[in-house]
User: What shape does this take?
Amino acid sequence: MPQHERSDIVAEVWRGDLVESVHHGSVVALDADGAVALTVGEPDRVMYPRSSNKPMQALAMLRAGLDLDGELLALACASHSGEPFHLDGVRRILAAAGLTEHDLQNTAGLPLDLEAQQAYLAAGGVPVPLAMNCSGKHAAMLATCVVNGWPLETYRSPEHPLQRLIADTLAECAGEPVGGVAVDGCGAPLFALTLTGLARAFRHLALAGPGTLEHRVVTAMTTHPRFVGGTGRDVTALMSALPGAVAKDGAEGVYGLALPDGRAVALKIADGAARARPVVMVAVLRELGVDVSGVADLAEVAVLGHGEPVGSVRAIL
Assistant: This one.
């Protein structure tokens, strides 16, 4: 098998009257019945969903007895921006389990949000695990270990009971076996799926009925989208504008989303560019007949010249 994905052009970068660059990618969209409605590139090629796996990871933790709901459960699914309410929420998850931020083993980082980062640094902050965008997930992982009496020191090992349960849950939701294991940017195990499997996993969550743990995850994320992303984040805007839509962005240009009626989308920008990710997602949703007027500002991303818009990133399907 070739080392690089054979993918199609999914977005063009216009500067003035010329196409300056292009982004290649792969996309799959499922209709309400679960049938494939649209494909681009190679959606059945195994890839790493990165943080788009987080809703399913949180589902596994609930199955193991984690007692989280609402904004804190949303934070367990988050790649948060590091705003003060995010960091406070992580501390609350840890405190409820009798832990502190010093128990976190994720990679140290700074807040993603520029304003929050500047305030954090001005107050003397330095890169620490708490401020890194995956700290909510890691806090929830530790809390799950406490509930079950599992070792805390090795919770990031792929052989740990928690990570084995997460792998099994991902495979169940995706309807396919995990296709590989690596280390994610935050230090946790990263389990590979196909884009088609990722779309099926989001669809599984979106269609679960009231009273299920899947519905609990979806309700937390859709009710508290600011805790999943943050101020100005496209994942927060999408869930805020599309009633009932559950979505999660991931590093290296990955996005998963499902609507309450079962329509679902998963995509990956081949070069990992985040700027093309929301643009292509909005275009695919439009192709599925979704009213995207509430996120019209995500349909194109401005290209700047001397600080002013001189072009845009535009999806092509």
Remarks:
- The chain is about 35% helix and 20% strand.
- The chain has one domain: 8-315.
- The mean pLDDT is 97.
